Amino acid sequence: MTIKDKANELKKDVPAIFLALKSSDTPFAAKALAALTVGYALSPIDLIPDFIPFLGYLDDVILLPAMVAATVKLIPAPVLARCRKEAETLWENGKPRKWYCSIPVALIWALMVFLLCRAVCGMWS
After folding, report:
1. pLDDT in tens, 7-47
2. DSSP class of 49
3. Contact indicator for 68, 37 with CB cutoff of 8 Å
4. 63: which DSSP letter?
5. How many Å apart are CA 67 and CA 46, to the nearest integer?
6. Are 81 and 54 within 8 A, CB to CB?
7. Most buried of the four, 24, 43, 93, 115, by CB within 10 Å?
8. Residue 56's closest CA among 43, 47, 67, 64?
9. Which residues contact 50 (CB under 8 A, 6 or more apart)?
10. Are the beta carbons of 9 and 92 closer than 8 angstroms?
11. Dist. CA 81–CA 67, nearest whole Å
C-alpha cells in the first residue's frame, strides 16, 4: 500500500470515526478517543503551529494518523464497517449532507475571534 493510499484511507476514516462516536454500539473508551481524534482533526488549532518550518506539519503527519489508527483499533469491526459505509454518503455532490458537523469548527473559530478582539481592545484601552 502506497502513502497516497494510506492518506486516502485516513481521509475516509475521520468521518467514519465521527459517526462511530454517535453510535450506541461503540464502547466508552473508543468514544473518548474518537472525540479527541475528531476534535483534533477538525480543529484549526494544532499542537505545533503549521507556520513553524518542518515541525509544523510533523504533528499532522504523525500524530493524527496515530490517533486515527488507535481509535479504529478500539471500535468494533462491525460498527466501523457500518460507519465507513455511511461515511461514503456523508457528502453528496461536494456539499455536506449533514451540515451540523461543521458546528464545532465554527464555534472554535468564533471563540478565537472573540478572544483576539478582546485582547486587541484591551491593548488599546
Report:
1. 778 778 888 898 898 889 999 999 999 888 888 877 777 77
2. -
3. yes
4. I
5. 14
6. no
7. 43
8. 47
9. 56, 57, 60
10. no
11. 18
